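pinned: reference chain
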Amino acid sequence: MSKNPCHYLLLVILSYLVVPVSFGAITVDGLLNEPEWADARVYSDFVTVEPLTSEPAKYVTEVRLITNEEGIFVGFTNYQPASVKRINRRFARDADIKADRVMVGIDFDGTAESAYDFTVGSANSRQDGVMGGGTHSTDWDGTWYSQTSSDKDYWYSEIHIPWTVAPMSDAGGGTKNMAFWFSRVVYNESLRFAFPNAFYTRSTFMEDWHPIEVKQVKASTLDWFPYASYNHNLRGSDDTDDANVGLDFIWRPNSNTQLTGALNPDFGQVESDDLVVNFSAFETFVSEKRAFFTENQGLFNSAQPNEDVVLYTRRIGAGVDKGLLDVDVAAKLTHYGKTVDMGLFAVKEDTSGESAGGEFISSRIQRKSNNLAVGHRLTHVTRNFLEREATVQGVDVRWDSSDKVRVAAQILHSDIHQKANNNNDYQSVDQQDYAGWVNWSYTPSDEWSHALYYSHYGDEFEMNDMGYMRRNGYDEFYGYHRYDQRKYDQESSLLSGSTEFAYSYLENTAGKRLSLWSELKLNWVFKSTRKISADFETTSSGWDDRITRGNESYFRPAKYKAGLRYESPRGNDFVFSAKVYAGTEDTGELYYGAFIRPELYLTETLTLGGRVGFKKYREWLLWDSEVSQLAGYETDRYSGDIRLDWYPSNRQEVRVKFQWIGLDAEVINSYQLDNSGDLQTSGTESSSFSISDTAFQIRYRYQLAPLSDIFLVYSRGGFFGSDSGDKGPRTLFNEGWSGVQVESLIAKIRYRF
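pinned: its structure tokens
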């Protein structure tokens, strides 16, 4: 035993917190040996859905289902003889499980409106998510349990899903109609089997799930998540250290209502975001990782077909030009009824002193009736420091006119008011405008799918106070057509293939064409699990009214792009994907590049992966804000990342992550625009530049229980910038690594009571 008193104290604490996972007569241990499993409902008529041939499954799969007062229990028995290679790799929670796996999809209300999926890898890796309305998100996290086991010819998965895992409507009659979908992936052969015969690519995917009538269980819970964290800044004085305590809670008074709250929540990142170097006129979208904004968030999902979102939670705590802000209190209330679902979301940032903190409110109501769903959404932001109020309202509708056709549409209105003061540079704002879109999708068969989309954004429509949109002031028409080859001759080396053709026309509200774009994608999957894909893209000449940041518009030439990608057989211990590509930039000059993404599975619990890329621009056209003109840069762009994941035990995770981006940009031309929008040589010369950005993190995680963790994190970030554009990769890397700007240690514990 360790003689270190701190180590001994930690072992004592863990001995009280970590308990066996047992529910009544069933212990979730991956062994389906309890007598209750003999009386379970059994489903074994699995068919092949990947590729989507609907033929009987190649390997026998059997699912047993039990529902009782404690929740839903699912047991998988997967026949996989020793001659068929098993992939038992371990992955982090919610990571893409590149291994043999099983999945349970549950529509708790049986309405085909929304559902939850619970995926378990053969090494007991877990992933969960929420789906509905043609979208799927893994941002949602629930409290559920699983374990796996194996023998010579089979592997097994045992899953327990409590009734309180997600809100659901109250049937009121003692019984409740639900729908289930079970699937299994044999990873080394790129095969997926499912019961019933349903798949993502069909417009009737969720409607095709298997209906099951269960006894309505009325459950209520109150979960507390206190946390404590300490951030020690290794590059500053002691007064820059930060200690926090706070509390999250989840109260479910019944199965269809949930209140989630947070007092002084800790939104410090224990998982670093990917490095981004963005010189475009458009903001980078960053996915959410903070627990409060991912748990029970399905009702507030606001993704649009063009990837804009009305509610973008990364706005909260991000501040306005003054860095990150603390959040004082946050609350989220949802209620799911038989036909009407409602939600309310409110957050208050720190508004003390000179803080530009704000108050955020979002509401959602939707009514479901047979094949029609209608909803209303509102977001409202108040920032007293800036004397600014921003409101966005939207009405949306989704109509399944048949089992092959779906129509979705939304109309949005924004209303922004801001009084001029010293804190907003005396900018007064009073603007209102509309945006809207309609999307039609048609899936006549398993082989063919089509979609048409039209959107309009007014010049003064704005939803970036609490949402995310790339731009306003435009009209867009988009079309998409896909053909999937599901079957090949027995002698063929191909397993499946697809052809996609997409196109769009974009113009601004002044009637100027921004682009006429088209893309062709070809994909082939071989029986060996190798993959080859090719893409070809063309964009007509057109106006770029954003590159000069609100000054004159540039009339750019036509652009072309092509790429070829290869992925090695995915069941090997060493796998990789590689891509080469080339195209023309905004000046018509050539660019080209390549990347390789290798992964080495050293053991089933130790993975080393990364990515190395290079891109060469003959002339990269950028806006030089210092002299208010365009400039063309001959540019070398280097990127690399390394990631090591190690799982010493079922509860422990060690992650080492390093990223680097380096740019050498040497100015070769400086431009002004004439009245025709053409480039003219400028007498003012722009400056060359080099930048290098590095990020390094070591993270240790110990899982006490589902949604209860201890984190120890070391983070280090470096940056280098220069007016020279020819430093070279070695110098860029060394300077970016040595130019440390942030270095910290974070300790955090969060426990669910």
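why pinned: Helices lie at 5-17, 291-294, 729-738. The two ends are 29 Å apart (CA to CA).
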